[in-house]
Amino acid sequence: MVRCSVEILELDEFEILHRLVLIPDPKIMVAALKDCRRLNDYALAIRFLEAAKDRCGDQVSTIYPYLLQELRPKLCELGIEELGYDKPELAITLGMEK
């Protein structure tokens, strides 16, 4: 089922992490963050942001700041930036990157 309206977008935990495989539009990301709040799953919101940053690939220095700029009101509402969780804490590099 394809959902066209962001307003009726109600995703569960699996859909938030796995169904949005590309970098979603900021409006869809806001809806997903609202769903994280609705599910009362703060950790999922953090993993969602980390996954979005990872999906930026080699364009992370240009795309991710834009996403944070567009998401800033919702991140402030949820308190994610105040805790510093807009940046991954335990990121492990495997040495496979160039």
In terms of topology, how is this protein built?
Elements: H1 13-19, H2 26-38, H3 42-55, H4 60-78
Pfam families: COX5A (PF02284)
GO molecular function: metal ion binding
Subcellular location: Mitochondrion inner membrane
Précis, in short:
The chain has 98 residues and is mainly α. The protein has helices at 13-19, 26-38, 42-55, 60-78.
Characteristic key phrases:
98 residues, 54% helix, disordered N terminus, 4 helices, mainly alpha
If you had to describe this structure to a student in words, what would you say it looks like?
The protein is mainly alpha-helical and 98 residues long. The protein is built from 4 helices and no strands. It has helices at residues 13-19, 26-38, 42-55, 60-78. α2 (26-38) packs parallel to α4. The longest helix is centred in the C-terminal third of the chain and has 19 residues, at 60-78. It is globular and about 35 Å long. Residues 1-6 have low confidence and may be disordered. It is a peripheral membrane protein. It comes from Culex pipiens pipiens (Northern house mosquito). InterPro entries: Cyt_c_oxidase_su5A/6 (IPR003204), Cyt_c_oxidase_su5A/6_sf (IPR036545).
